[in-house]
Amino acid sequence: MKRFSKESWAGVLFASPWLVGICIFMAYPIAASVYYSFCDFSVLKPPIWVGMDNYSDLLKDEVFWIAIKNTLLYAAIALPSGMLMAIGLAMLLNTKVYGMTVYRTIFFLPSLVPQVSLAVLWLWVLNGEHGVLNELLYHAGIKGPNWLGDPAWSKPALVVLGVWGVGNAVLIYLAGLQDVPQQLIEAADLDGASPWQKTRNVTLPMISPVILFNLIMGIIGTLQVFTVPFVMFPGGSPERSTYFYAMYLFDNAFKYSKMGYASAMGWIMFLFILALTIGAIKVSEKHVHYQGS
Amino acid sequence: MKSQQKNQRIRTLVIQVTLLCLSAAFLFPFLWLLSTALKPIEETSKMPPVWIPSTFQWHNFLDAITYGYKSLGYYPFLVYARNSLVLCSLIVGGTVFSNSLVAYSFARLRWPGRDLAFSITLATMMVPFPALMVPMFGLFRQLEWIGTYRPLWIPAWFGSAFSIFLLRQFFRTIPFELSEAAKLDGCSEWGIFRQIILPLSKPALAVVALFSFMDAWNDFLGPLIYLSDQRTFTLSLGLQAYQSQNGGTPWNLLMAASTMVIAPVIILFFFTQRLFIQGIAITGLKG
Amino acid sequence: MDRGSLVFPGLALALVAAAVTSEALVRPPNPDHRTHITYWEKWTGFEFDAMKAVVDEFNRSQDKITVDFLSVSNIRDKTLLAISGGVPPDLAGLESGHISQFADEHALLSLEDMCATAGIKGDRYVKAYWDICNYKGHLFALPTTPASTALHYNRQLFRDAGLDPNKPPETLEELTAMADKLTRRDANGHFKVAGFLPAEPGWWNWAWGCVYGGKLWNGKDTITTDTKENIQGFEFVESFSKKYGPGQIQTFKSGFGGFSSPQNAFMSSQVAMELQGVWMYNFIHMYQPKMDWAAVPFPHPASRPDLARMTFVDEDVLCIPRGAKHVKEAFEFAKFVQSQHGMEELCMGQKKQTPLKYVTPEFIATHPNPYIKLFIDVAQEKNAVVAPQVGIWPEYLDELNNAYDQISLLHLTPAEALKRVRERMQPKLDHYLQRLKMRNELDSVTGQN
C-alpha cells in the first residue's frame, strides 16, 4: 500500500461522511429505481419484471412527448433569460450605490417565500381579467393577454415567474464578482477600457467558474420545473400547455400508481441532463478560469 | 477629470434608477401578500383586487396563530414553529459539518479515485428527486423511521452534492501556498482544515448554512411524505392546513401565517448578507 | 482563543439537545388505557367540525377506544403513501372515486365479513350510494356523506331578463334559449352576465356525454369515449364557445372569485344557471343569504325524455387501509357512524342528505336546505350517474379534461378530440388490465390474497 499516502488516507477520511452517505442514500435508491424501471410496480405490490416494456411504452406515449416538448421549450426560454437577468442584477448590486443592503435583500426576497404562497400570489398578479400585471399594461396602452387561460401565454407567464426567483443565482454571482481582484479592474481602467470591454474581457472571464456552476444548476432546475406549475396549473391546463416532464413523472408515480413507468421516465431524464451537463462542461473547458489552481 | 467625475455621477444615477424600478417589480407581490394579510376575509378574493384594506385587521396575525386551537387543543402555529426550529438546527448543523469536511477533501487533498468520486457527486445532483422518492421511502420504512424526524435530518449529516460543490469551488480559490506553508510547520490536515480553511471560509460556510436553512425551512415534500402525526408537522407543511380542499380557505390568515413564516428568514438575511456576500469573496486574502 | 475553543463543544451540545428533542417530539403524549385509532379526513372548516362532533360523541359513548381525528390535506396521495410506508391510519376518509384505484392496488381491506357480523346490510342504503362502495364483488368502503347535483338558478336574474322564475328550463334546448335571454354583453362582446356556461364550475367537464346518455366505457374492457351520445354532449359544450367566442368565455371566467367566496360566479350574479351539488346551499347561506335562488333537476335533451331528472352522485366514504393496526376498533367507529343517529347527525352537520333509504321526518323537517327533498329523490331514481369505476380513472379523467379544453377552445371538433382520447386510452386500458391480471396470477401462485 505504498501508493496510499498519508494525504490519501486523510482525503478518504475527510470524505467519509459523503462516501457512506452516497452508498446509503444514493446508490441504494438509485439501484432500486433502475430495477423498478424494468418492472411493473405499483408501490403496494412487489415489482414484477417486464423488461424494456416501460421504455418502449414511453416512446409510444403521446403525453410523454408533449411533456418533453413543453419542458424543452420552457428551458430554452427560461434558462437564458434567467441567467442574463441574474448576471445583470448581480453586476448592478456590485456597484457602490446608496441603499445596497436593502436592494440585495429585496432581490433575494422571492427565493425566501414558500412555493405554495408564491404560486397563489402569482395567480392574482397574472389574472387575465383583473390581474395587476394587465392593469399596468393597460395603463401603458397594451391589452394584456389572458396569461393563465391562453395556451400561447401560459409558458411565458412561467418564465416571468422564473426570472423573478433568480435570487439564489444572483447571490452566487455577487460572491463571484466580489472575488474579482480590484487590481485587474484598475489595470483595465488605466488602459482606458470601456465598461463593456471591462465586463467582456475582465469580469466575465474571472467569474466563469461561477457562471458554469449556475448554468449547470439552471439546466437541472429548469428541466425539473415542478412545484409552481403544479400548484398554479392543475393538470397542466390549458390544453396541457404547462404540463412539464416532472409533472407527468409525478402523476405517473403518485396519481396513476405506475411507479415502474415513472422510474423509467426518471432515468431518461437523468441521462438527458447528464449528457447536457457533460456537454456544457466540455464546451466551457477552454473558457473557464480557476483562480486558485 | 471633471467630465469623468460627471460621467461617474450619471452612471450612479442610472444604476440607482434601474435598481429602484426593478425593486418595485420584485416587491409588489409582497405588498400584495402583506395587504392580504391585513384584509378582512371578504376583501381577499374581490375582483378587481383591493390593494388597501378598508380596515387594517392586525388581529389576523393573532388569529393565524390561534387558528385551529378549538379543534386541535393546542396552538398549531406555535407547535409547528417549534418543530421547524428543532429540525432546522439539526439540518443546518449537519450540513455545515459534513459538507465542509467532504469539500475540503475534494478541493485540496489528493487521493486515488477522488476525481471519479467528485464526478459521481456532480452526477447525483441530476438525479430527479421523484425517481428516488419511492426507494428512499422503502428504505426508511425498513428502518422504521417513518413518522419520525430522522428521515429529514440524518441524511443531512452525510453531505449533499450541492453544498459540496459550492464549498469545493470556494476552497479551491484559497491559495495552496497557505496549506503548504502550514504543512512545513508540521500542521496536520485536520489542523490546516480547522485553523486555516475554516476561518477563511466563514462566509462560504454562512452561505451553505443559509441555503440549507432556507431549504429546510421551506421544505414541503419531505415532511409531507415522512411525517404523519399532525403534532409533528413543520411550518411549511402546516401552512397547507389553512388551505381547504373545497374552498373556504381563510386567505387572509394564510397570508398572515406566510408572512410570519418568511419574516424570520428575511430578517436573518438582511442582517447577515454583508457577511457572506463580501466574505464569500475571501477578502481576507487580498491584502 | 478561549472563547473559540468553546464554540465547537457548545454547538455540539446544542445539536445533541436538538436531536434528543426531535425524538421526544414524535412520541405520543399521555398514554392511557384506551386504544387510540387514527382517522384521517379531507375536510376542514364546518364539515370537519360536523364529523368532529360525531367523533367526540363516539369517544364519550364507551371507554375502550379513542378516535384521534385529523384533517389531512391531499388525502388521496397521503393515504397511499402512508399505506405503502407501513404506517397507514386506521381509517381514511376517501372519496368514492378513489375506491376502484385503491382496491386494484390492494390498498384497502374488504369489509363485507365485518359488515355481515355487525348486521350492516346494503338494503338499508340508497342503491346508488351503496353501489359505489362496492367494487368487483367486494365492499371496500362505508358511506359518510353523499351528494347529488341539480340545476341551480338565480330567480332575480330570471325576472330581470323577463323570464318567469317559476318556469325553469326542462330540456337542454330550453336551457340554451333561456341562457341566451339571460346573457348580457357590452358592445365589444364582453360578458356582464352569462346565462349558462358549461365550464362553470368545471367539476363535471368529463361528464357532458352522460347528459346525453353516453357511457365512457363498457364496464369491462372497452373505452367508448366517441360514441354518438358522447359527441352530442360535447357538441353542446362546443355550441357555447361558437356562440360567444372561446376568448370571451375564458376572459370572463378568469374574473370569477374563488368558489368559496362572495365573488363566486353564481352567488355574485355573474352566471345565472349552474350545475351544482347539494353543498351549494351552505355557501349561498354563508356568503349571500339574501339571494333569491332555486334548484331543479338538471334539464335533459328534448329528444331523450327518458333522461329526465339526471343527477351526478358522489360520496365521501370511510375505508380501512391495508396494514391498519386496529382494524376491529376502526370498524367499531365506522359502525357507529352508520347508525341512523350517527348518520343524521353527521349529514345534518354538513347540511347534506343521508345515504340511508329511511330518513326520519325530523331530518327533512329541520333541514335548512329548502330543496333537500329534491336531492334525496333524484339520487334514488334511474338516471343517477356515477363516475366510471375503473382503476385507470385518474388518467382517463385527465385525458377527458384535456379534451374538454381542446373542444371549448375550438381547437378540435368534439368528434376528433374524443376519438383521440379513445385512441390514447384504449391501449392504456388494455395494458392496465393485462398487468392487473399478471399481478393477480402471481398472487394466486404465491398464495397471497
In short:
Chain A is mostly helical and 293 residues long.
- Binned, the helix content of chain B reads over 70%
Number of strands of chain B: 0
Interface with most residues: A-B, 100 and 98 residues
Characterize the overall form of chain B.
flat
Structural class of chain B: mainly alpha
Tally of separate helices of chain C: 18
Regions with little confidence, pLDDT below 50 for 5+ residues of chain B: 280-287
Q: Helix/strand/pairing class of chain C, anyone?
A: alpha/beta
Which sequence of SSEs, written as H and E, runs from N to C of chain B?
HHHHHHHHHHHHHH
Multimerization status: heterotrimer
Question: Can you tell me the overall shape of chain C?
Answer: globular
* Proportion in β-strands of chain C: 5-15%
Give short descriptive properties of this protein.
heterotrimer, A: 293 residues, mainly alpha, 14 helices, 2 strands, 69% helix, C: alpha/beta, 5-stranded mixed beta sheet, 18 helices, globular
Give a verbal description of the structure:
Chain A is mainly α. Chain A contains 14 helices and 2 strands, in the order H-E-E-H-H-H-H-H-H-H-H-H-H-H-H-H. Chain A has helices spanning 6-36, 53-60, 62-93, 100-108, 115-126, 132-139, 154-164, 167-178, 182-190, 195-206, 208-223, 227-232, 245-255, 259-284; strands spanning 39-40, 48-49. The mean pLDDT of chain A is 84. With 287 residues, chain B is mostly helical. Chain B is built from 14 helices and no strands. Mean pLDDT of chain B is 81; it is low at 280-287. Chain C is built from 18 helices and 14 strands. Chain C is α/β, with parallel strands linked by helices and 449 residues long. The longest helix of chain C has 33 residues, at 414-446. The model of chain C has no long low-confidence stretch (mean pLDDT 90). At the A-B interface, helix 1, helix 3, helix 4, helix 5 and helix 8 of A face helix 1, helix 4, helix 5, helix 6 and helix 8 of B.
List the helices and strands and how they pair.
The complex is a heterotrimer of chains A (293), B (287) and C (449).
Chain A: H1 6-36, E1 39-40, E2 48-49, H2 53-60, H3 62-93, H4 100-108, H5 115-126, H6 132-139, H7 154-164, H8 167-178, H9 182-190, H10 195-206, H11 208-223, H12 227-232, H13 245-255, H14 259-284
Antiparallel strand pairs in A: 1-2
Helix pairs in contact in A: 1-14, 3-7, 3-8, 3-11, 3-13, 11-14, 13-14
Chain B: H1 2-37, H2 59-66, H3 69-72, H4 76-108, H5 114-125, H6 129-142, H7 150-153, H8 161-172, H9 176-184, H10 189-200, H11 202-218, H12 221-226, H13 235-239, H14 251-280
Helix pairs in contact in B: 1-14, 2-14, 4-8, 4-11, 5-8, 8-11, 11-14
Chain C: H1 2-25, E1 35-41, H2 45-61, E2 65-71, H3 75-84, E3 91-95, H4 99-104, H5 112-118, H6 127-131, E4 134-135, E5 138-139, E6 142-147, E7 149-154, H7 155-160, H8 172-182, E8 184-185, E9 191-196, H9 208-211, H10 228-244, H11 246-254, E10 271-277, H12 280-287, E11 293-296, E12 311-312, E13 314-319, H13 327-338, H14 340-349, H15 361-366, H16 372-380, E14 384-385, H17 393-408, H18 414-446
Parallel strand pairs in C: 1-2, 1-3, 9-10, 12-14
Antiparallel strand pairs in C: 3-13, 4-5, 6-13, 7-10, 7-11, 8-9
